[in-house]
Write a structure and sequence with these properties.
Strand content: under 5%
Oligomer: single chain
Largest sheet: none
Radius of gyration: 26 Å
Length: 107
C-alpha cells in the first residue's frame, strides 16, 4: 500500500511538472505574438487618428479653395487607408496564430 501511495505521489509530481512545462512552452510561443498584437494595435490607433483628422480636413469646404492642399489630403487619405488595411490584415494574421496555438494547448 505504501508503494502505491508513493507511486501515486510520484505520478502526481510528474504530471504537475509536465503541466508546468506545457504552460511555459505556451507562454514562450504566445509572448512575442501578444507583444506584436500590442504594437499593431498602437499603430492602428495612430492610423485611425490620422485618418479621422484627414477626413475632418476633407469635410471642410475651405480645403477645396486650395486645390494643391485638397490633392495632398486626398493622397494622404488614400495612403493612410491602404496602410490601415495592411495593418488590420497583419493584426488578423497574428490573432489567428494566437488562436491556433491556444487551441493546440487546450487539447
Amino acid at each position: 500500500k505504501e508503494i502505491q501511495r508513493r507511486s501515486a505521489q510520484h505520478d502526481d509530481r510528474e504530471r504537475k511538472r509536465e503541466e508546468a512545462a506545457r504552460r511555459q512552452e505556451r507562454y514562450k510561443l504566445l509572448k512575442p505574438l501578444k507583444n506584436r498584437i500590442d504594437r499593431v494595435e498602437k499603430e492602428i490607433a495612430s492610423l485611425e487618428e490620422q485618418k479621422a483628422e484627414i477626413e475632418n480636413n476633407l469635410a471642410d469646404e475651405a480645403t477645396y479653395r486650395d486645390e494643391e492642399k485638397a490633392k495632398t489630403l486626398t493622397q494622404q487619405y488614400r495612403e493612410v487607408s491602404d496602410k490601415l488595411g495592411s495593418v488590420y490584415a497583419d493584426w488578423e494574421s497574428v490573432q489567428e496564430e494566437i488562436e491556433k496555438i491556444e487551441t493546440e494547448f487546450e487539447g
